[in-house]
User: Fold these one by one.
Assistant:
Number 1:
Amino acid sequence: GQNIDQPTEMTATEGAIVQINCTYQTSGFNGLFWYQQHAGEAPTFLSYNVLDGLEEKGRFSSFLSRSKGYSYLLLKELQMKDSASYLCAVRVNSGTYKYIFGTGTRLKVLA
Amino acid sequence: KAGVTQTPRYLIKTRGQQVTLSCSPISGHRSVSWYQQTPGQGLQFLFEYFSETQRNKGNFPGRFSGRQFSNSRSEMNVSTLELGDSALYLCASSSSGGAGETQYFGPGTRLLVL
């Protein structure tokens, strides 16, 4: 079956660095996405990895290891506004493309 | 460009009723996907439409259906509502749903079934 695991909740302090892990078991892997979702709002796209390695975008970086079925999202210089849920999603190709989402990691940033 | 829009934003229904939700994709986007989001299950894929055809389907009962119009707007319908259908329903659009593309989400419709 297709499965994605990520921690349910994490807490970090303003200004710190936090790493949110995501492991997946899927067939037909075609890319891994990270989305941010504030309470009551739509998920917004953060990053996309399809090849192994690190993608950096300002304070956010995402890493992928396809052989290990593993990704992480790294958030640096945490701000209060980073308190949100972070969703890991894998796109799979089974003839057409479909997205499988993890249940999300709720991050609380404390002052 | 305007983002993905969904109407209505909030809805309260009772068991046994039916409901229709609407999604307008980003202009030029032809792929529209629907998801159900609940606290325990996360985002669950319902179906995807492209060029007025259902191209992909998740594991939901036949009470959940959808359609897409020639202008790429999409609707989903849930018949014979159950309490467990209470959720946030999100739609997402992309250009063609192909490799290398990103989905963009609408704000969602929050459905409460009493």
Note: The interface with chain A takes residues 4, 33, 35, 40-45, 48, 55-56, 58, 90, 97-100, 102-108 of chain B (CB under 8 Å).
Number 2:
Amino acid sequence: DSGVTQTPKHLITATGQRVTLRCSPRSGDLSVYWYQQSLDQGLQFLIQYYNGEERAKGNILERFSAQQFPDLHSELNLSSLELGDSALYFCASSLTPLETQYFGPGTRLLVL
Amino acid sequence: DAKTTQPNSMESNEEEPVHLPCNHSTISGTDYIHWYRQLPSQGPEYVIHGLTSNVNNRMASLAIAEDRKSSTLILHRATLRDAAVYYCIPLSTGVNYGGSQGNLIFGKGTKLSVKP
């Protein structure tokens, strides 16, 4: 158990819908990262937050947004969902952006 | 970001040592070499990291070439639980937190199979 929790574990929705994925980092960690893992693209970095501020963006679509709240939990919002958004979404946390990252168990999203 | 090359797959027998190679010829002087692994149906898990010297921890050893263009992750006695995809990731660790420092750029990794 890494100490990072993600909810929900599974999510099934339809195209065009909007979903919110939630992540609670390890106690004391200030940095949160979101990654997407699909069969064709592998593991891809989406976005990083540090102490509530966005620090870096990777291959995150404009339909996707995220935020880190004052209590340091983070949410990833996916809107106008497409079939191709079906993937595993992982959240990771670290004490600072330079420290070891600890990954959650992931949320499996299926868009039908 | 530094590019890495790893074998697509490797096989090992249980209780034998495993050497997982990684080429990272474009690595910069401030990039640490991190290894993560992903067990089936789980999130990635940190294994080990190093800069120039060889490193050991309870999970594995990391041998880094003198020119830093390659490294080898060593599992001293593979177990069935070590079957996973292993990723070698150069990671920029400058003194400030700006930019993309700290973000993991995953390649395809090496899928390790362990036979009983």
Note: The mean pLDDT of chain B is 90.
Number 3:
Amino acid sequence: GAGVSQSPRYKVTKRGQDVALRCDPISGHVSLYWYRQALGQGPEFLTYFNYEAQQDKSGLPNDRFSAERPEGSISTLTIQRTEQRDSAMYRCASSTKVGRGNEQYFGPGTRLTVT
Amino acid sequence: AQRVTQPEKLLSVFKGAPVELKCNYSYSGSPELFWYVQYSRQRLQLLLRHISRESIKGFTADLNKGETSFHLKKPFAQEEDSAMYYCALINRGNQGGKLIFGQGTELSVKP
């Protein structure tokens, strides 16, 4: 079946603009995760959902970042008033069920560049 | 604090040589360790996890709690092994599956 998809794949935006990044998980996957990866670094956790409930948002760097998953499927990560330091690869992953250690399937990522 | 350290940013070996990618971790509970791999122009994917004690594509990794290490090994490297490798952990004490990644090691296998 289809894997995790993310859109757009590339986004260039001007400083101060808002952006919305979309993640479409594997059908039926309960858990959805967002990570951010700066150049030369490993992915860094941002937030995750079980169904539509946001379980942990401790990784969101500040209140310009928010995420939602209103129907327990597609999720949107929104960055308001973008800054150049927000430039990174944003990765989404999903897993089959609630709980620790279940394999996370990653999407292709969205490369965000803030100019 | 949970942390994963991969001391080598780049590891370059010749085809057929043994390879070891180092991973050390710190934890405040009982971790579960993983290796993820990203081949060129592909997405990040799970290579292996310590609880499975399996060998994938000839790679193995043993959890050493005394040394807090989870090094990835392969006796004979192949050119197709060239990729970015990330070590990661989940703390079993947490709800959910938040992964904590190391910085990654780029493996380059030369012909």
Note: The CA atoms of residues 16 and 81 of chain A lie 4 Å apart.
Number 4:
Amino acid sequence: DAGVIQSPRHEVTEMGQEVTLRCKPISGHDYLFWYRQTMMRGLELLIYFNNNVPIDDSGMPEDRFSAKMPNASFSTLKIQPSEPRDSAVYFCASSSVAEKLFFGSGTQLSVL
Amino acid sequence: GQQVMQIPQYQHVQEGEDFTTYCNSSTTLSNIQWYKQRPGGHPVFLIQLVKSGEVKKQKRLTFQFGEAKKNSSLHITATQTTDVGTYFCTTRGGGADGLTFGKGTHLIIQP
């Protein structure tokens, strides 16, 4: 099992550009989560999906952020337009119902 | 969703000393999950506790769930440099109820 796969590992972009982060969950997991981690705010839940359907996006900071899960094996988190304050590590995680979370290696995003 | 608070935020210890981090909730929890994140890494699941008063051990790590299921602790005996990292607690209800991690406890070990 390859685990949760995220890409890219690092992303450096300029303010105003569109950023797309990608995630492939573990096969068979029906929950997918997007988290953002910063020193100031810790590990924040942005949005989660159940069976490809967004269930709770109350953690999404603002309309510049959007997430999709077109099928059970792929999800994207998009930021448009990006701002310097979006700089953080973004983690994707997946799980079966009521079970432990498996995290990907994260995407280190730097917005200049 | 259910929320847990974790203390302390930072803990400096000398190598060989013990370390404890605490999770507290104002409401009864159905379970507690503990994760560890090494510097530069991603959170990795350590253990889940579900029973009142439950105690589980993993080598030098001891996990406890309070009798009232409102608090939990992680204790490390004789810390080693490999224990460095951030320890998170969270609780998992149905779906993603809970599953907030917060800032965790950063363990810094001085050799």
Note: The longest strand of chain A covers residues 42-50.
